[in-house]
Design brief:
Number of domains: 1
Distance between the termini: 22 Å
Oligomer: single chain
Order of helices and strands: EEHEE
Shape: globular
Number of strands: 4
Strand content: 15-25%
Number of helices: 1
Helix content: 10-25%
Strand order of the largest sheet: 2-1-3-4
Length: 70
């Protein structure tokens, strides 16, 4: 459970270590390396468990939600 984002809807797949995290801050607290920013990030919805990709350069607040559920 993420202590940084209240009711986090998605998990982020880290492009550097290929592990899943609730947010970038969770990655930073757990790993000894910085989160590698990629142009295309992979997310997994915690509700429907479907994965989807988003362009990090065009990321908006609305992108924190699953396109399959909302």
């Amino acid at each position: 459970m993420c202590k940084h984002i209240l009711n986090a809807q998605v998990a982020i797949r880290s492009p550097c270590c290929k592990k899943w995290f609730d947010c970038a801050e969770c990655h930073q607290e757990t790993e000894k390396h910085p989160l590698l920013q990629s142009t295309e990030m992979t997310f997994a919805c915690k509700k429907c468990r479907k994965c989807f990709r988003k362009d990090a350069a065009e990321f908006e607040d609305a992108d924190e939600y699953c396109p399959h559920c909302d």
